[in-house]
């Protein structure tokens, strides 16, 4: 089954896209062609969009699905009148919330992603710059300034996780790659022990790691299954000495890994005495 999905908004469309993706993820037997349509903020643009809906309906043999966050009632009515299954997310969530709070919503477009708190926006930008400047152990002397430090073998997901933590949580994240030199001496620099209270280790299934490395360096010893197996085995020996929580990135998304890290940082006492047990889905506090 193929269906076209439109994410529509008067503003950036990020909210419509995020919520829409979450709902669509529950229907993995359907193939969705996703169309991102921000700034549909005039009646002319709305009518032009209904024409695109008709084209999609003719092509798919089924009306398209529209996830929208529209404030203007006239524009909303134009879209609702189009050949589509229309889901107005503000209508679904904001109106019941307003009734519960007893306060009318402001009905201003783009509020959730506007720079309404400049200090937090600045913090996120600084965190992104920090993550980029402290990637791959470039500046281990900066680990003391980091909110969180990740370690793991090459291609285990350290860099994208650091960037996600910076972009979405405003955390200064640094990472240290465990290299052949570390394996040869059987340990990592003392700097990692010094930041053990904010250190997390990433692991990954060797077969999955091989596929990732093979894309980067096809046919190389670096991408061989034996090398991947050895790297993971030796890395876990180091993790035990570090007493670091271990998170498995094999089948978890960056978002899931990041949320576990944030949860652990919030819940753990100073100096982090909480234990972490590795499970099939990654590390969980107990």
Automatic annotation (TrEMBL):
GO terms for molecular function: ADP binding; ATP binding; phosphotransferase activity, phosphate group as acceptor; protein serine/threonine kinase activity. It catalyses: [pyruvate, water dikinase]-phosphate + phosphate + H(+) = [pyruvate, water dikinase] + diphosphate; [pyruvate, water dikinase] + ADP = [pyruvate, water dikinase]-phosphate + AMP + H(+). InterPro entries: Kinase-pyrophosphorylase, P-loop_NTPase, PSRP. ADP binds at residues 152-159. Its EC number is 2.7.11.33, 2.7.4.28. Keywords: Kinase, Nucleotide-binding, Pyruvate, Serine/threonine-protein kinase, Transferase. It is an enzyme of class 2 (transferase). Pfam families: Kinase-PPPase. Belongs to the pyruvate, phosphate/water dikinase regulatory protein family. PSRP subfamily. Bifunctional serine/threonine kinase and phosphorylase involved in the regulation of the phosphoenolpyruvate synthase (PEPS) by catalyzing its phosphorylation/dephosphorylation. This is Putative phosphoenolpyruvate synthase regulatory protein. It comes from Allochromatium palmeri.
């Amino acid at each position: 089954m193929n269906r076209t999905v439109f994410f529509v908004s008067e503003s950036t469309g990020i909210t419509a896209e995020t919520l829409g993706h979450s709902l669509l993820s529950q229907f993995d037997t359907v193939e969705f062609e996703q169309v991102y349509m921000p700034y549909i903020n005039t009646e002319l643009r709305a009518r032009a969009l209904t024409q695109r809906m008709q084209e999609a309906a003719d092509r798919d043999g089924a009306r398209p699905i529209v996830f929208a966050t529209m404030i203007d009632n006239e524009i909303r009515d134009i879209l609702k009148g189009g050949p589509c299954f229309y889901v107005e997310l503000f209508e679904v969530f904001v109106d019941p919330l307003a009734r519960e709070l007893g306060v009318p919503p402001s009905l201003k477009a783009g509020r959730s992603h506007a720079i309404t708190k400049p200090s937090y926006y600045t913090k996120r930008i600084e965190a992104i710059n920090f993550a980029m400047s402290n990637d791959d152990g470039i500046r281990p002397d900066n680990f003391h300034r980091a909110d969180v430090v990740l370690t793991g073998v090459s291609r285990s997901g350290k860099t994208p996780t650091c960037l996600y933590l910076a972009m979405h949580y405003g955390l200064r994240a640094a990472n240290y790659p465990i290299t052949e030199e570390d394996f040869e001496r059987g340990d990592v620099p003392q700097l990692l022990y010094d930041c053990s209270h904010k250190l997390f280790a990433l692991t990954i299934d060797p077969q999955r790691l091989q596929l990732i490395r093979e894309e980067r360096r096809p046919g190389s010893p670096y991408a061989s299954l034996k090398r991947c197996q050895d790297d993971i085995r030796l890395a876990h020996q180091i993790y035990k000495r570090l007493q670091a929580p271990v998170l498995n990135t094999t089948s978890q998304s960056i978002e899931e890994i990041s949320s576990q890290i944030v949860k652990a940082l919030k819940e753990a006492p100073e100096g982090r005495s909480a234990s972490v047990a590795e499970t099939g889905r990654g590390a969980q506090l107990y």
